[in-house]
Amino acid sequence: xxxFCDTTQSRHEQxxxxxxxxxxxxxxxxxxxxxxxxxxTNMERLQKIVFCDxxxxxxxxxxxxxxxxxxxxxxxxxxxRTGGCTFCGFWDVTTFGxxxxxxxxxxxxxxxxxxxxxxxxxxxxxxxxxxGSMLEESEISLNVVLGLCRKLAARGHxxxxxxxxxxxxxxxxxxxxxxxxxGSREFEIAVGFESANELVRDHCINKNxxxxxxxTNYHILKEYGITLIPLVMVKPxxxxxxxxxxxxxxxxxxxxxxxxxxxxxxLATIEKNTLVHxxxxxxxxxTPRLWSVIEILNRKEVLGLKTPIFLSPPNYTATxxxxxxxxxxxSDQVIEAIKEYNRKWDNSVFDSLECSxxxxxQKSLEINIPNIHLLDQIENILEKLxxxxxxxxxx
Length: 395
Hints:
395 residues, 8-stranded mixed sheet, two-stranded antiparallel ribbon
């Protein structure tokens, strides 16, 4: 990304200004979400997960079904403090900060286990997400997480447990307790690493942590035999299609020396009450094209990067108004090829894909590269958005 190492005083001041602008807008959107949705305090609903999803994953070289449980949570604490991530619409399906009792969290999972229609015992991989961080005490008690891990580890069919946490929430004490709770079971912690580019992570996504913190956590987890899975965002807001491709490829290069089990690529979606949704409605953002996803995978192959890539599906707990597609003529075929890639990790599944829209996509990459510093690019877009929405920071 152009002028990435520019550390002049004026750039530092600009970064502070942009961070304040972005967070001010995000906080306004989160407050709006609270006004639009009633706080859910219904006891029966608080004891049920938002929903579960059956997905695929690898276990001992086998492509198996895994069950993903989206717990009904109180909401990411960053949504309250900084507005949260620019693309994340999960806030709208939480209790907006209203505390959920420990016993209710336990009941949410127990009710899934007892659900005869789900046949819980057929899934060797169990993933638990709370639309925030499973290791943030203000969202969910660590005692609850440990209790849920013990409950799952005690079930013979469960071979791997997966949770999601923020990079800043991981420390040695928690990791030690988690390892003790799960015993010999495999354990993964997925973290929103998003991008190796500090400017992208901080100003396009609103996650302000140092790469050193990620590296430290990686070594701690490795010491305890726990797998760290970085989640990398494909096309955060403010980036052009070509910049987004470059950003992901650079991130994959940075992550390669860690010899990770895999990297999960997250395809951007459009969810209400997010900055991405605001930009999308004003014609200032489009979701990544599926051709861009294939381009990333092809560049990875050319560079000789060996870390496996898994493409997460664009279906989440919040309603998506738009997601990664090509044109109607080829989208379904490309999506099927991507599913096949997840199963085989073989780029040849894309070889026969052709469509007239691919040429249009290629042309857009050539003409869509601003010749300015990324911070200036972000500031220009934010100013246009504020004008289009008649948004004032004092709102």
